[in-house]
Amino acid sequence: MSAKNLFLPAAFVRAPLQNGVGRYVCQLQRITFKFCKSHGGSRGLRDFIEQNLVEFAKENPGVVVYMKPRRHRSPVIVGEYLNGDRVWMSVHNKTHDEITKWVEVMRTQQGDVSSSRLRKYQYTDHPSIQGPWTPFTFKIPELNTAQLPDPKFGANNRLPQSATEELRLMFEKQKLNVKEEELKVAE
């Protein structure tokens, strides 16, 4: 086991700003493209800027786009998120298609999740050695190969009759007995 996580800040896994409850809020706030106008390693980023940048900006009006030309420097994409995270990615010698995919990844993620030690809301001194419970934990193994619907596995076949159902049947029998007695008296 590594002690690397001791030096990372602790954080909980949660949806920022309850994202997905109500409306979607894009977590990416700013994206900066740093590139060289003449360096060969910036070729893919320059192609992305020429072909896709205007379309990206139109599709994502909530994201501020900056371009920063720098002489004789390696190309970099920097994304800044709502939670204050900054993700820095070197795109040296990457193709136009790879950069398009990485920009989409930066747009859809919520910041640098790997830079914090994840914590849980629950804690126990004696964790279960049996593993987590799933809905399939106590299912009958024969269900895996059965052709459904099968009356053998029907829910009503295994359950006893409820008290309400028994009372309803008793009432029906009582009504039939009363009608039979009335017919006998009428004859």
Key structural traits:
single chain; alpha/beta; Glutaredoxin; 2 domains; four-stranded mixed beta sheet; two-stranded parallel sheet; 5 helices; 17% strand
Query: Which architecture of the largest domain does the CATH hierarchy give at level 2?
Result: 3-Layer(aba) Sandwich
* Class by alpha and beta content: alpha/beta
When the domains are counted, the total is: 2
The strand order across the widest sheet is 3-2-4-5
Radius of gyration, taken over Cα atoms and rounded to an integer in Å: 33 Å
- Strand % is 15-25%
The major pleated sheet works out as: 4 strands, mixed
CATH class descriptor of the largest domain: Alpha Beta
Number of strands: 6
Give helix and strand order, one letter per element, not per position. Answer: EEHHEEEHEHH
Helical proportion?
25-40%
Q: Write down the CATH topology of the largest domain.
A: Glutaredoxin
**Total of DSSP H or I helical runs spanning 4+ residues:** 5
**Shape type:** elongated
Family: Belongs to the mitochondrion-specific ribosomal protein mL43 family.
Domain Ribosomal protein/NADH dehydrogenase: 37-110
GO molecular function: structural constituent of ribosome
Subcellular location: Mitochondrion
